[in-house]
Amino acid sequence: MADSLPSINFGFDDLRDRMARFTEKFDSFIATGRRQVLEERNRFRINVAELQEDQRLRKKEIESLAQKSSSHAQAVEKETAETAEMHAAIASITQQRDARAQHRDRIRSEIASVRKQVAQRVTVQQEYAKELDAHAQLNGPELDFWQSYLGMRIEGVGMADRLKFVFTCVDERNWEREAWFELDMGRSDYQVVNVKPKVEPEGVERCLVRLNESRDLGQFLKAMRGLIVAATK
Length: 233
Known about the structure:
3 helices
């Protein structure tokens, strides 16, 4: 009876072959995917390592640039300080030069002023010497008369431009008694600095005023002798 049943073919062999081919393809796909994953992971690791190395190099370059920048900034700061010191030194030297120039100009001005004053004094002294010479020529005979007949003599006192006029025969009680006065001629206006015996100051002043106005020494000596004679009485 079994032999009489119809033969049914369910296709198990074909299915088995198909399953085997599928499994083989699937295993191949998995293996291929695994290889791709491994390759991508390796490439990622390589990329990461390269990025890290590049980052390290960039960091090193940045540090080097920062150091160079710091050194440059220090050099610039040093040059700025040196430039400031140089400008300060130049300003100080310029100030000293200007001060010395001003001092030199002031000294030149003072020298010129002194020379002018000296020239003026020399001119005044020359004129004064001429005037004295002229008066000496006029008063010479009269002075000789005073010295010879009226007991007067002229002495030096050890000082420039000062003379001592000594009189005798001025005291009726003692004709040998000496009276004198000193005349300072170092200035434009003559001055009587010492008198013996003591005489009236106002009278001496009047005599000096007339002498400085007229330069008449003879009249001055007469007036002073009169004052001295009056003082001895």
